[in-house]
Amino acid sequence: MKVLLAGYNLDYEIIRKWQQEDPSAQNLTPETISAAYARISRSPKPVDQLRAAAREEVEKARQSNRNIVFDMGHSSVAEHAVFNIDVIGVSRLLVEEIEKFRLCSYTEKSQRYVLFQDDFVIPEEIEKAGLADEFVTTVRRQNAFYSELYEKLRPFVFERHRELAEDPKNKSLLEGWAKEDARYIIPLATETQLGMTASARNIELMLRRLAAHPLAEARRYGQALYSIVKDVAPSLIRYTEPTRYDLLRRDEQKEEMAEIGALTGSAGRNSLSCGAVRLISSTPDADDAIITALLHSSLGLDWGKCREVVVGLVEEKRRDIIKSALRHIESYDALPREFEYAEFHFELEISASCFAQLKRHRMATVTCQDYDPALDVTVPPAVSGVGMEGPFREIISSIDETYRKLSRAVPQAAPYVLSNAHRKRVSVKMNVRELYHFTRLRADRHAQWDIRAVAEEMLTLARAKAPLSLLLAAGKDRFRQMREKVFPEH
What we know:
The chain has helices at 12-21, 31-39, 47-56, 58-71, 92-98, 124-128, 132-160, 162-165, 171-182, 200-211, 216-229, 244-263, 286-296, 303-311, 315-326, 352-358, 381-385, 389-409, 432-442, 449-465, 476-486, and strands at residues 82-91, 105-108, 191-199, 277-282, 343-351, 365-368, 423-431. The protein is an alpha+beta fold. The strands form two sheets. A four-stranded antiparallel sheet has the order 4-5-7-6. Strands 1-3-2 form a three-stranded antiparallel sheet. It is globular and about 75 Å long.
């Protein structure tokens, strides 16, 4: 056996300095690794020799990539070329679009830990419509109220948690709690930054989708992204223009759905009805589906026969099978993939602050409607606790008024003015394995209160449908307690 390090991330400033000092280093590109790995399937040479050959003949490596990726259609080769991208000065609204690409990695500036200043994006559409002054006035009022809220929330939080406040080490934690509640009033236009890691394949897809996006900021971001990667990996990032599917699907789908709504008398939006979390559907006999999968991967029986075996088992034996799969698991262990055979479909009505955290769970299926002021807003309990709910809602009313004016002129850009407190409807589908991961992080006592409440309600609804499979599903802080209850012998 031989295991070699083929490469690793290098800061671009180091690479550029190297190129400046060494003229022979001009062809440093991740394309050579893609080309070498692409040749593995057809060459008897060891892969380290293939990499050496690709480095010696970069143009030949690029031609190989073009043939294999684009002519032969083996796009996975482009996934071996990976980029680290700094994204600075973009709006929170745009970040929602960027982070829809589930196979990339993101780390974003947190409004829970960083005190924000009066930095925000003024959308091109709003400037062209002559509404920039009104937009800026509303946003600056939001930001001024954010600062006022923080100054009131900070002592409130410290007083409410006196024991924690006695230890200076908890200062940043408590200040963070004040910041995370104050942020509910600031707009989706707020500037932020993130670090993104993505393969050439996913960057190319991102470029096509962003080129067709209705927001000018999204299109500008796509153009800026292309400008920094095109010369580094030209053989892997080629098709960046939107397809007809990219250009037409979004608008045509909305038009057709609106027609159906009008024909059926369902046009418009119904009001908030039965809570923030609803279970729409779940796998029938969810526990049995997972037990069947566990038997199928362990026995030499076909799926149908395994299902028959499960139907004939008494409750105690079915529980024993689930426990056998969970017996040695810790709070950091991923469940077996057999737990993916049962899933739950939820509908949520959540704030932008809550969605900002939910969207990071990219292995779940997440689709959503636009933000809708008709769904009201989420007011942090601490804001009411310091007597600021009235002024908070006054600011929300002025935001909603500006939103309505923007909607008539530039509907695609109107959401920029909405706050982190504004809500939208989200459809989420998670299997049991993903639900464990989600609740470990989001139902934990360290989680932010808004998404923690949502996660706990999702788990309660799901546990009613799969009580055995979700025996150990909980926030990390409660895992040890639950484990000792299920496995008292350990």
